[in-house]
Amino acid sequence: MGILSNIFHKIFPGSKPDAAQPATAPAPAPAAAAAPAAPAAAPQPAAAKPVTPLVDVEAILTTMQQQNSQPLNWRTSIVDLLKLLNLDSSLASRKELADELHYTGDKNDSASMNIWLHKQVMIKLSENGGKVPAELKD
Prior knowledge:
- By secondary structure, the protein is mainly α.
- It has a domain at 53-137.
- The protein contains ten helices and two strands; from the N terminus they run αααααβααααβα.
- The protein has helices at residues 3-11, 15-24, 28-34, 38-41, 43-48, 57-66, 78-84, 91-100, 110-127, 134-137, and strands at residues 55-56, 130-131.
- Strands 1-2 form a two-stranded parallel ribbon.
- The radius of gyration is 18 Å and the shape is globular.
């Protein structure tokens, strides 16, 4: 299991099985598209999109922060975000996350990599059912 998956599991505890269900739903749709009944398959993806409720990532992380005794700045720091989620925040772990997210910059420039990682994680959370404020994705 990758680091990004671990982040998702911590923020969206029950979302991975839900994410697997939409992945299986499009599989029957291409089979139906191969059959003459292709028009019937078209409305199914449209109906599948509203099923996923948005999860308020900011509220979840803020609540976690309030329950944590360490002064962590998860809003701007990937290290603090990982610590808040009780995940490995070591440089090696962040480099692994950078690989998962296809970082093309210099991994030895950890400051630049960390800024990029935080932004990308927030974007990925947003793309996968998370309600993330715009300022956390910029």
